[in-house]
Amino acid sequence: MNILSYALQMILSLSILVVLHELGHYLPAKWFKTRVEKFYLFFNPKFSLYKKQIGETEWGIGWIPFGGYVKIAGMIDESMDKDQMLLPAQPWEFRSKPAWQRLIIMIGGVTVNFLLGIVIFAMILFVWGQTYVKTEDAKYGIAVDTMGMVLGLKDGDIVLACDTVKLNKLETGPVIKAIVLNNAKQLTVKRDGQEINLPIPTDFAQILTKYENKGKALYHMRKPLDMKSVVKGSNAEKGGLKDEDHILEVDGNSAKFIHDFKKVLLSKKGQTTAMKIERNGTDTLVLQIPVDDKGNIGIALESFEKEIPVSRETYSLLSSIPMGWKTSVNFLGDQLSAFGQMFSGKLKAKDNLGSVFSIASMFDPGWDWEKFWRITASLSILLAFFNLLPIPALDGGYVLFLFWEMITGKAPNDKFMEVVTYIGFILLLGLMVYALGLDISRWF
């Protein structure tokens, strides 16, 4: 079911982006009276799942569930329809239109994708707002995860700054960004009431972005363990645990905080653990509780908000729009910085490339709509960026040659465009095969 959920979310997300991207080409083409022969969601070699002729355009759905295209008359594109290009140019064809009109047609797709990213980010803020815990309100500090240990962080630390960037919210995103993109040199933390500086290893950005470290966090908020109830029929109930009990220790270790409690249970998978509990406020008992093969015993926990306040920011429709713009621009800037780090060799491309399988794994297996739209907005910005790269067969390749034509007054001939388009397809196909190979190798 998880695999199906991942696949459906990815297909839905990419379908939205592709249809609107191609609509960005279709609409200006129609405005400039250019004939659009086909508009397809997914690719349809040999046959289509569905097609219908409406006016001069064939609308359809292909059987390969990725991508899509519009076939514009008089243009060398992925259809490689060379026969059409041998005939005299017609007034309704792309090649007959002024360069400035062709430019608008070509940048229509990326324009729509960038605007879509802004709109989705804005609507996320409008609908869900932002929730966070202020650094000053996280009174128990942090629970250090795998990568945070490499930095020398300890449970209970309060992370105050990364270089000169003050951290007013308890979140790791700004820290990771500062380390990976901005070459941050140190963390400032409060430990046992004293401020200390922790140097960041020079190779930590590469360590942090290694594929095998994806999903490993620096730290989380340290949350107190407060049991709400025992799940009926669970191992906890079978072992004698009751709703009103207060857990003191597990396997001889303090159970004051959730991460300590879970760490012990994960080490006791498929075994029985000794749990010291307090009952009725006075009695102390030791229970033998079976732990399942996932490290669970079957209890529900109280919300940490009973002890740690959560701040919430809401946005009106008008105020969400500039924030959507800011989020989109910042995201694009971060991606450009990341590519710069890859080209400079600080980050390894093989650790940061992936195929459709990597994209699918980004979604939530339970279908979280906020996360779905956040990923879709990010992919929309990325699609706009990649399509503007000056690679033949991408929109950016056509835009590059159009600028050349507008500057020199001479358009590249059809044979040249045919050859470079083939080269572009080969480069893109090679990149996709390489990315797919990386994902397959990671499984093994």
Short description:
The protein is of the alpha+beta class and 444 residues long. It is 45% helix and 20% strand. The protein is built from 14 helices and 18 strands.
Which strand order spans the largest sheet, edge to edge or round the barrel?
A: 2-3-1-4
Helical proportion? Answer: 40-55%
Q: Radius of gyration, Cα only, in angstroms? A: 28 Å
**What class would the helix/strand composition place it in?**
alpha+beta
Count of separate DSSP helical elements: 14
Global outline: elongated
Work out the strand percent. Answer: 15-25%
Number of domains: 4
Number of strands: 18
For the report, how would you describe the main beta sheet?
A: 4 strands, mixed
Average predicted local confidence, pLDDT? 89
Ends: how far apart?
22 Å
Description of the molecule:
The model has no long low-confidence stretch (mean pLDDT 89). Helix 1 (2-31) crosses helix 3 (99-128), helix 1 (2-31) packs across helix 12 (369-387) and helix 3 packs across helix 13. Strand 9 (186-191) and strand 10 form a beta hairpin. The strands form six sheets. Strands 2-3-1-4 form a four-stranded mixed β-sheet, with helices on one face. The protein has a four-stranded antiparallel β-sheet with strand order 8-7-9-10, covered by helices on one side. It has a four-stranded antiparallel β-sheet with strand order 14-13-15-16. Helices cover 45% and strands 20% of the residues. It is elongated and about 95 Å long. The protein has 14 helices and 18 strands. It is of the alpha+beta class and 444 residues long. The chain has four domains: 2-126 and 372-443, no CATH class; 135-222, Roll (Pdz3 Domain), CATH 2.30.42; 227-303, PDZ domain (Pdz3 Domain); 316-371, no CATH class.
